[in-house]
Every structure is written in C-alpha cells, then in structure tokens.
Amino acid sequence: MFAAVIGILLLVLSAQVVKFRLKYKKGLGVTDDRDFEAAVRAHANLVEYAPLGLLMLAIAELNGVSSTLIYWTGMALVVGRILHAFGMINGRGGTHWARMIGILLTWLAILVTALLLLWNVWQVYG
C-alpha cells in the first residue's frame, strides 16, 4: 500500500516537472522560474528518500517486525512525503510548514525503521 501511494505521488510530481519542461522547452536543468525549480526538487527529494524508506519497511516486514509498527511507520513515511511535496511546491522552494513537518516525519520514519531493524538483528543474533 505504501509503495502504491508513493508511486502515484511520484507520477504526480513527474507530471509537474514535465509541464515546466514543455513550457520552457528545457530538457535538462531548470530556468530561473522558482516554481520550476521547486517542482524539480520536490520530485528529486521524493526519489532520494522514498526508496530507502520503502526498502527498510519491506525488510522489517520480512523479518517479522510487528505489522502495527510497520503500518504506523509506513504511514509516517507516506504522509511525510506528501506533506513535503505539498510544502515544497506551495512554498515555492522556501520555508513552508508542510515541508518542515514532511521532512521531520520522513526522518522519523527512517530512524524508527532503522531502530526496528537493529533491534530485530539484535534479537536474532544477540
């Protein structure tokens, strides 16, 4: 479920970037349009954080971590990514409450999942 929602978000953000690329006939890089740059960074930031978070969640689930912990951590990751993208685009790359909350939720989800994985390894091998 988490990967599906993030996949849809990726397509929405990709469409935003394509819209600007077509508008400015710019196949690579960005112009000095702040909205264009924010769209590219919102897309790139999702690609930078989401794969690791999803991979870690999948490994934790396969290792038998509680489904309740997987669910809530996954929800934090997804909500964080949605908020970050919303804040990045609506804040035009500047400070925005959704961007800040989004990155904090993303970092929290990755940290919690990392700790769950380390705890899982310690229980098995410790």
Structure, explained:
Keywords: Membrane, Transmembrane, Transmembrane helix. InterPro entries: MAPEG-like_dom_sf, Membr-assoc_MAPEG. This protein has 126 residues and is an all-alpha fold. It has a single domain (2-125), classed as Membrane associated eicosanoid/glutathione metabolism-like domain (Four Helix Bundle (Hemerythrin (Met), subunit A), Up-down Bundle). Helices cover 83% and strands 0% of the residues. It has 4 helices and no strands. The protein has helices at 2-24, 34-62, 67-90, 97-125. The longest helix is centred in the middle third of the chain and has 29 residues, at 34-62. The model has no long low-confidence stretch (mean pLDDT 96).
CATH superfamily: Membrane associated eicosanoid/glutathione metabolism-like domain
Summing up helix and strand content along with how strands pair, one would put the structural category as mainly alpha
User: What is the molecular shape?
Assistant: elongated
- What is the third-level CATH name, the topology? Four Helix Bundle (Hemerythrin (Met), subunit A)
First and last CA, distance: 32 Å
The total beta strand count reads: 0
CATH architecture type? Up-down Bundle
Q: Indicate the multimeric state.
A: single chain
Biggest β-sheet description:
none
pLDDT < 50 stretches: none
CATH class: Mainly Alpha
Return Rg in Å: 17 Å
Strand content: under 5%
Mean pLDDT, to the nearest integer, reads 96
Question: Counting H and I runs of at least 4 residues, what is the number of helices?
Answer: 4
Q: Spell out the helices and strands N to C.
A: HHHH
Helix amount, in percent? Answer: over 70%
Structurally, the number of domains stands at: 1
Keywords: Membrane, Transmembrane, Transmembrane helix
InterPro entries: MAPEG-like_dom_sf (IPR023352), Membr-assoc_MAPEG (IPR001129)
Transmembrane segments: 101-122
GO cellular component, one term: membrane
